[in-house]
Amino acid sequence: MKTFKLIRYLMIVALSITLVNCTSEYTAIPGQDGVDGVDGADGVDGIDGEDAATAACVQCHSNSHREATLNSYGFSGHNNGFAWTFASVRGGDDPTNRCAQCHGETGYLDYITKGESHVDGYASPSPISCTTCHDKHSTFDFENDGHDYALRTFDPVTLVIDGSTVLDFGGTSNNCITCHQPRSSYDIPGSTGDYEITSKRFGPHHGPQSTMLEGIMGAHISGTEAYPGVASSTHRTGASCVSCHMGASEDPSEGLHSWIPTDTGCVSCHENGAPTEIAGWTADIATLKSLLEANNMFDADGYYVPGTYSAELAQAAWNYKTLIEDNSKGIHNPAYAKALLKNSIEALED
Question: Is the pTM for the entire model greater than 0.70?
Answer without folding.
Answer: yes
